[in-house]
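Q: I'm building a small set of examples for a reading group on sequence design. Run inverse folding on the following structure and report the sequence directly after it, with nothing in between.
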């Protein structure tokens, strides 16, 4: 088997030199172990944080060891009860073609019509992040105006659709006309191209002249500042991520931070793991919408294990529309 490992820790945007494709031994299975041929690998922005040697909500990746991340695949060989060749499974031993480990590392995918890779996107971690971030963290309600950044991405595209299904008015921002067209196609009432000429604040003001009740932050920086400037009294911010700063060494600067005080804003950070105990709720509602054909699942696919570091790096320059995936 082959796996990508982290060769050195990047400062700024990771380059090809920080990754190495290495052979890993295919040892015979021990009792209780399963061997899986991965079919889809996920690359996610949070992996950038794990490349730094700092304490966080997930431990850093070790140097010169296989990287990990979400993946789905098919069981090839099993010495564990409950798993048989042909079973489709979800697990965290990604960045490699073949994953071997104890049965507890693997979760069987439900039978049904959903394509396997949806469990890495809309019906998986990013979808859960959108669902609970919007509805539980920000407590967004029908009739309210929601602003979401990176709205053409995995989490953002789910936020747009959930908010519309729940009767909210939605403004999404994304980089470029094509992505904005997609955001509108997903149901958003307005889409802002943050890369086009003009200030983000004036664009947001034009899209939501009454201000916003909820901001779902995927980006941070200027997006966060614009949301602060346009927030109505008692608005709630679901602080999901700040991708703008993941490769930056600059301090975050906000001109409108004092509005948190004056407008009595609530900014609440969250990690999707906080909601894993409510997965059944998520699967019932999102799974129901998906089965009823009410959800779109945009995705960008790169082919082959070799493409994994590039696919990951492209997240930071908007190279993906919808969920970024590697197909093996
Ligand atoms: P996306 O699919 O949204 O991919 C990242 C997107 O971010 C890019 O396509 C790009 O879109 C945008 N982007 C990248 N750099 C910048 C920049 N400098 N300024 C503005 N936009 C930028 O990724 P995910 O949906 O997986 O993740 C979205 C956010 O959610 C991230 O911040 C991530 O860390 C966070 N997250 C948090 C979780 C939690 O538990 N709190 C769980 C999962 C994700 P564009 O072309 O529009 O610029």
């Amino acid at each position: 088997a082959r796996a990508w490992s982290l060769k050195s820790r990047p400062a700024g945007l990771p380059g090809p030199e920080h990754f190495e494709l290495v052979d890993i031994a295919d040892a015979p299975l021990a009792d209780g172990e399963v061997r899986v041929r991965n079919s889809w690998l996920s690359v996610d922005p949070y992996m950038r944080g794990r490349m730094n040697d700092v304490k966080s909500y997930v431990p850093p990746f070790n140097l010169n060891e296989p990287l990990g991340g979400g993946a789905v695949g098919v069981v090839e060989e099993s010495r564990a009860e409950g798993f048989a060749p042909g079973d489709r499974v979800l697990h965290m031993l990604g960045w490699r073609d073949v994953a071997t480990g104890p049965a507890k590392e693997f979760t069987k995918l439900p039978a049904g019509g959903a394509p396997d890779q949806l469990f890495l996107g809309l019906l998986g971690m990013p979808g859960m992040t959108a669902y609970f971030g919007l509805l539980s963290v920000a407590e967004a309600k029908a009739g309210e105006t929601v602003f979401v950044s990176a709205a053409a991405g995995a989490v953002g595209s789910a936020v747009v659709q959930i908010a519309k299904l729940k009767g909210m008015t939605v403004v999404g921002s994304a980089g470029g006309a094509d992505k904005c067209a997609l955001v509108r196609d997903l149901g958003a009432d307005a889409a802002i191209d943050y890369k086009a000429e003009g200030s983000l604040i004036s664009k947001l003001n034009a899209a939501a002249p009454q201000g916003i009740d909820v901001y779902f932050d995927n980006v941070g920086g200027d997006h966060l500042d614009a949301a602060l400037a346009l927030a109505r009294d008692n608005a709630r911010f679901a602080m999901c991520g700040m991708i703008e700063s993941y490769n930056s060494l600059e301090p975050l600067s906000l001109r409108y931070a004092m509005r948190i005080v004056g407008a009595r804003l609530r900014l609440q950070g969250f990690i999707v793991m906080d909601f894993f105990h409510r997965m059944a709720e998520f699967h019932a509602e999102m799974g129901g919408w998906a089965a009823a054909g009410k959800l779109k699942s945009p995705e960008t696919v790169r082919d082959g294990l070799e493409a994994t570091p590039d696919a990951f790096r492209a997240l930071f320059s908007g190279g993906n529309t919808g969920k970024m995936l590697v197909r093996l």
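The chain is about 25% helix and 25% strand.
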